Amino acid sequence: MAMRLRLDHVTADYQIGPVRSPRVLREVSMSLQPGTFTAVVGPTGAGKSSLLKVLNGLLLPQSGQAEIGDITIDGKSSKRLLKAVRKRVGLVFQFPESQLFAETVEQDISFGPLNFGAHPRNVHALAEKVIAQVGLDESILYRSPFSLSGGQKRRVAIAGVLALEPEVLALDEPTAGLDPTGKEELLSLLKQWNKQNGLTILMVTHDMESVARYADDVVVMEKGRAVFHDSMRKLFEDTERLEKWQLDVPDARRFQLEFEVRSGTRLPRVCLTEDELADALIEVGRV
Ligand SMILES: Nc1ncnc2c1ncn2[C@@H]1O[C@H](COP(=O)(O)OP(=O)(O)OP(=O)(O)O)[C@@H](O)[C@H]1O
Ligand SMILES: [Mg+2]
Fold it and tell me: Is the Cβ–Cβ distance between 52 and 204 less than 8 Å?
């Protein structure tokens, strides 16, 4: 059964030694439908990473609650419940490759499933499955994670989370530091898992071009609040709002706006990629 995620007036802060930090999430309510690809954007410090941590049971609500399918977590949830949530919502941290530690890639990937009670006899097949899923050759399972390239390490780290067979994959800036090809390849993989396997994806990113190309929906975080949650196309309709939230406008949309001002011709729709822009220009007879 596909699982819905819901936050209901979630407020959260961090315990720093004896004191609590200022609130990092303020009355955040949202509902994420199964099978959606949602980007989470917003300025630095807005609470994007904290939002992912709440959904994965790593940061507990101070007030309000989070529903992960039929599990409800609040400030008093038990360790057992939180562990169940961690299996359902796989969290890929920023630069996840920094957490690789085992002697071989296979051992690294197997660590999570074994920890969650998978039978040792089954983990090899699982490792083979997820290494193929991230587009790497099976032979890499027997190598040291430290002998791999940056992009390969990143994929291995993501494979380790996929090995938990989560229903939701939450990724914190998964393309940070990758070259353009590596970035494009990783985003295509995410899109493929989303469309073909119905994996629900939540991705924090600063890259609005990626949002425009890959996301269905967008959540904008600002000062601990979710100030926008709607379709990606809706977000780019109103560019003034984007400036206020310090969000970039995709190149195609920027070109469209300049064109419309200069030519006095309105294009029939919001264009977010070069292809869409080319089609719209043809339709109005400008190409
Ligand atoms: N472990 C922590 N202890 C105390 N405060 C924290 C901790 N992690 C984050 N914060 C604070 O919580 C607020 C929100 O941080 P968060 O990491 O969720 O923001 P973000 O939107 O992910 O930012 P960025 O784009 O820089 O990654 C910030 O003010 C940050 O300083
Ligand atoms: Mg962050």
Answer: yes
- Quote the strand ranges of 44-138, DSSP E: 63-68, 71-73, 89-92
Q: Are residue 225 and residue 284 in the same domain, yes or no?
A: no
Instruction: Say how many CA atoms lie within 13 Å of 139 toward its Cβ.
Output: 1
Per-residue model confidence as pLDDT tens digits over 22-38: 999 999 999 999 999 99
As for how many domains the chain has, the answer is: 2
**Which amino acid belongs to residue 93?**
F
Q: Is 49 in the pocket of ligand 1 (CB under 6 A)?
A: yes
Same domain, yes or no, for 200 and 85?
A: yes
Q: Are residues 22 and 53 in the same domain?
A: yes
pLDDT digits (tens, 9 = 90+) for 33-73: 999 999 999 999 999 999 999 999 999 999 999 999 999 99
13/4 Cα distance (integer angstroms):
24
Helix (H, G, I), strand (E, B) or coil at 165: coil
CA of 49 from ligand 1 middle (Å) equals: 7
Instruction: Tell me how far the alpha carbon of residue 69 lies from the centroid of ligand 1, in angstroms.
Output: 26
Residues 6+ apart with CB under 8 A from 61: 10, 11, 12, 25, 54, 73, 74, 75
Domain limits at 133? 5-249
